[in-house]
Amino acid sequence: MAMRRVNHLKEIITTLSESDVDFIICGGVALVLHGIERMTMDLDLSVDLREQNLRRFIDAMKKLGLVPRVPVSAESILDPEMRRLMVEEKNALVFTFIDLHNPYRQVDIFITDAISFDSLNSFVDTITIGDSTVKLVTKKKLLEMKKVIENPRDKDLYDIHLLEKILRKSEDL
Q1: Which domain holds residue 88?
Q2: CATH of the domain at 116
Q3: In total, how many domains does the chain have?
Q4: Beta bridge partners of 26
Q5: What single string gives the DSSP state of each residue in 4-44?
Q6: Which of 62, 69, 123, 142 is deepest in the core (most CB within 10 A)?
Q7: What is the pLDDT of residues 30-72, one digit of tens each?
Q8: pTM score, two decimals?
Q9: pLDDT of 114
Q10: What are phi and psi of 5, to 5 degrees?
Q11: Between the CA of residue 30 and those of 62, 96, 104, what are the distances in Å?
């Protein structure tokens, strides 16, 4: 019997959607969904950090077999003070959930106010993945987010180039 290969990104996104988690797809996956050819394995999300939504998110992570990368409980992100300490003392921008048996299954959620769900929620497009309609950050907002990265990596600079090219093309239409 052949093993069915599951697209882990689609599996994570649909599980979150089916779990009624309010989130916005950002980063490399958003770029790919906007039509930019790019290799990406992790899923960057801006998640509504209100307690009930975070509880649904944590339950979905458990259902998917994803655990915090750092040695703390998943529930620690429920505490705004803990998130503040992670940002201030550890310089954390994200809290990461991983699959210990498959490191490609990784979800990063933004925990800083600068990239909060509320600040991004008016800059979204929607897309259907499977039976789920999900939010992803717009190309314009992605470009803006990429341009403020301190010490951008080569792939960030390339993303900026491609986003500018796509946005110029869409303005020409």
Answers
A1: 8-138
A2: 3.30.460.40
A3: 1
A4: 44
A5: PPP-HHHHHHHHHHHTT--EEEEHHHHHHHTT------SEE
A6: 142
A7: 999 999 988 888 999 999 999 999 999 999 999 999 999 999 9
A8: 0.93
A9: 82
A10: -85, 125
A11: 24, 18, 17
Is the residue at 91 inside a domain? Answer: yes
Average pLDDT score over residue span 154-158: 93
Rounded average pLDDT over 6-26: 94
pLDDT tens digits along 84-106: 999 999 999 999 999 999 988 99
> Is it the case that residue 3 has pLDDT exceeding 50?
no
